Amino acid sequence: MFIPSILLKQLYNRGSLTLHGSGVRFSLKNRLKDALVHEVLDIRIDDKPIASGKIRLQLADGQCLPLSEFNSMGTHDFPLRASLSVFVDDFTPVAQQKHRIHVSFRALPFGVLTFEVDDVATEEEANPNKIPRSDSDDYGEDIIKQRQRFYAEFSGAGIEHIAKFSIDPQSLRGNIENFIGVAQVPIGIAGPFHIQGEHAHGEFMIPLATTEGTLVASYNRGMKLLNMSGGVKSTVVDDAMQRAPVFVFEDARGARDFVQWVKEHMDSIRHEAEATSSVAKLTYIDHFLSNKFAFLRFNFRTGDAAGQNMVGRATFAACGWILDHYPGIQNFYLESNFATDKKASHINIMRTRGKRVTSEVTIKREHLLEVMRVDPKQIDYHGRVAGVGSFLSGVNNTGLHSPNGITAMFIATGQDVANVSESSAGILYSELTDDGDLYLSLTIPSLIVATHGGGTGIGTQRECLELLGCYGRDRVYKLAEIIGAVALAGEISLASAISSSDWVSSHEQYGRNR
Questions:
Q1: pLDDT tens track for 278-301
Q2: Is the Cα dihedral 442, 448, 453, 459 positive or negative?
Q3: Whether the bond into 192 is cis, omega within 30 of 0
Q4: What residues are annotated to the active site?
Q5: Where do the Hydroxymethylglutaryl-CoA reductase-like domain residues begin and end (predicted)?
Q6: CA gap 440, 258 in Å, rounded
Q7: DSSP annotation string for 90-145
Q8: Residues 395-421: pLDDT tens digits?
């Protein structure tokens, strides 16, 4: 089975080379897929072969075996994300210097895997304030209590509310490290809210997790108004998640020729990327040339997962194949800051990151006057004035506060809240109809959401998704349509409050907690 050399090197845990007694240790981590280790063939440090009698291997269960015994036992489970520690006795490399490590072993289903990496040897830490950890079970009750006591003693404060939780810590593997408890954020509900989506159709009660007074009330008011006009039409119009590597060449012509080669080998690149996942689908690659750099923006569909890790792994595998097959690349970085992960950017407004969703409604004039005490002309004129302010300030959102509702729903439903930075972009548009009503439309060009994986399966987060009918597979477009509609309800509510000058009075009534 062909595995690009750059991907093979990821088996080594960078920074794990440490002095240990009279020897040294380092560790490997399975970042490929579930495997069985058959035998370790060769270990060298600085091109010096290490005698098998000086090598011990520690499995994930803590069992430590001499190499000869390890190899004689047949196969050993090496599941995905598991680690394997290698101890080399009577061998002490110079600390704080870079050393070359060579590893070769036989594993199923891969065959013989061989790689070389450089790492710097360091002294083992003797830190009295080191956070307690357990190599065998870091999510067990005893180690959690040890960390809680450690933190309380270190800070001099008590841990009372943090330590109370209903979720099983064992279910948090892959979600949190050094777990000590939970943060409890109040959840309110708004609705019912009528949504006319292609995937979200009907009435929904919306969970909003926040500590900001008036937020739930404001969104509830907006939903009431939009329901009177038949609800919100919500549509997912695009879907893409990116990773954007950069390749460095001797000159601009080298970068230009490389891009042409990438176009000609798209089928092979797609095959290597999609081989890493049963879900990720590489749809296209954008290219951008500057100086002697070739920026490639890989675009994927990622099913019901947000997909940043998924596309990172897939792009890494594809780039490994590229590096092994294209000569003349002087340097390479998997992420060039062009995917703008966790950052607002204009390219994501133009090209989509996550889900591009548009929510729209036509609001009757009499309903606006009845519920919000404003005329459509006031809202439309206010929007045009605010557009000048948006232009002058250079913001990524021509609306008012769509990230408010997005954040509250992200916290409630277990989304990666840092993605609000990208999801904060919004394009709000309004126009007066011939009947004097108000057409209002909000496009969120980079809404990054998931209904499967990540934090969506944890306790309250899963419950909130289930209350929306959005937990699990084939639900992500439904969730995107709901969030888009909720954001629009918040826009009309706040716009009306500002236009009618009751914004401050509302906050005084509902938002004071002092």
A1: 999 999 999 999 999 999 999 999
A2: negative
A3: yes
A4: 212, 416, 507
A5: 7-120
A6: 45
A7: S--PPTTSEEEEEEEEEEETTEEEEEEEEEE-BPPP--TTPPP--SS-TTSHHHHH
A8: 999 999 999 999 999 999 999 999 999
